[in-house]
Amino acid sequence: MITMRGSMARMFLAVLLAWSASIPASAEEWEVEIVASTPDGAENSLHFGQKPDATDGYDSRYEVRAMLGGDIEASFPHAEWDVLAEHFWRDIKAADQTKSWVFEVNTALSGTETTLKWDPLKLPEGYVVELTDMAQHTVIDMTSQSEHHFSTYGGPRQFTINTKAPDMAVFLKSPSGLEAAWGENNAVIHLIWTDNSEGESGFRLERKVPGEQWTLVALLDANTTAYSDDTLAPLTGGKKNNEVIFLYRVKAYNSLTESEFSNTKPIK
User: Fold this and answer.
1) In this predicted model, what pLDDT tens digit does every residue of 174-208 receive, in sequence order?
2) Where does the chain show beta strands of DSSP type E?
3) Maximum CA extent, the chain
4) How big, in percent rounded to 5, are the helix, strand and coil portions of the chain?
5) Tens digits of per-residue pLDDT, 53-86?
């Protein structure tokens, strides 16, 4: 009879564990592993997430120092924590409706395709979670995709992760009053605008040559109201002839929505 009770208890525990494993991650407590790997088998992993008793800063019980080395390295850089380590393989933050992470991936195998993989089912249900490849300026919906491919050429590649609950969506007002002027040696253009939004993740600045397509110049931080575009070669001919050389525009965005573009500013 005791044996029967023990068997039933073990069976009940097994069913309970299987049921709990199928429950979607809660908004207060969740953790996701990101595995960075190369075709030759080099691999490194990172963990990010939220815990009710964690903070956004350094917690010795949650943050774990990254031991860098080998053919592939992945870490969360946190020099601002002012502890003995500056790179971590685990970064757990306080439970909240909007959080962001920054991590780096570096490989000594130049030109080799690197893959990032994760399990979307481990993400909190109903949240928007986006991975941004800062080198490509591409945004990946981590809740509907499970991997991202890229090639690394010299130095670490930076990524950001932004999470936001659906009820954090806000209407973003478009920036206004975009102005621009030539700077030093006609090789830089200084731009300013008015930030009219609250709740933006940042701004998207675009430029184009008349008759061509708009291209991304920079993704800028929230509350930014000025930028100097120094990606231009000296162009004095068009300026001298009073012809429009470039057009600029800017808009606010977050992980859920984006504003309309500002006024378009021509540069002569």
Assistant:
1) 999 999 998 877 788 999 999 998 888 899 999 99
2) 30-37, 43-51, 64-65, 72-77, 87-94, 98-107, 113-117, 128-133, 138-141, 147-151, 157-164, 176-182, 189-194, 202-208, 215-221, 226-229, 246-253, 265-267
3) 99
4) 15, 45, 45
5) 999 999 999 999 988 877 889 999 999 998 888 9
